Amino acid sequence: MLTSTAELKRLLDSLTVAARNKGLNDASWASAAGFSKETLSRLRRRSSCDLSTLVALADAAGASLSVAVATQPATTSDGHFPSELSRDYERQLLTLCASRQLDPAVWVAAGPAFFMAGLAVMLASNADVDRRGLLALAEVLHPGATEVAVFARWLKRSPVRPSRFLPMLAMEIRHAA
Known about the structure:
The chain has 177 residues and is mainly α. It is 63% helix and 0% strand. It is globular.
């Protein structure tokens, strides 16, 4: 897959999650953006499109387009995990998780896609979270991340320990309120 095709697919996947979270199927989403369902379908097979088309789709989905500066840490040799979990990086992850932000672009900018997908699955186990949104986010970041065997592999290799991270997150959320 060409890089431009991969980037457009990633962006459309993110916008699709936003549209679904707003309760829109493809037909209603395309209509709200001023397009036919067929146009949206064709766009998913293309490697490029006009910015105005993406803006219209984002507006209809209640989302916005933005540029995120990647500040990812060094990764393991397979690129799936950060090579270390410093206190500063852990703090960044806690802040992101406490924000309840579900924009895949923001999550991808924060760390390796597989690692971030597993983090979203882990968060979905908490009470008072948008479980459906977090699991959809995880699937956009890394298809299959919500499968039990895949998440088990994530738990085994992740530098984030749920027994430490989740209580810290609960405290972060309490302080933010």
